[in-house]
Design a protein that fits this description.
The protein is elongated. The model has no long low-confidence stretch (mean pLDDT about 90). About 75% of the residues lie in helices and about 0% in strands. The chain is mostly helical and about 60 residues long. The protein contains two helices and no strands.
Length: about 60
């Protein structure tokens, strides 16, 4: 597994650490899950946007 280095404000990291502790998991696990969720959501939104754009183009070509 690759490792990365990111920067974030101290208060934000404190919030992440609190949630991770409350849920009894590591900071890395929590951040991975958050990014997975973001990727799924972003993929869904982009799919909807592409479909809408295709419908607009179809309307223009009719």
């Amino acid at each position: 597994m690759a490792k990365i280095l990111i920067s974030m404000p101290d208060k934000f990291l404190e919030s992440i650490d609190k949630i991770a502790s409350d849920e009894q998991r590591t900071r890395s696990e929590l951040i991975r899950e958050a990014l997975r969720t973001y990727l799924k959501t972003n993929s869904f939104v982009n799919s909807k946007r592409a479909l809408k754009n295709a419908e607009i183009l179809d309307g223009l070509l009719d």
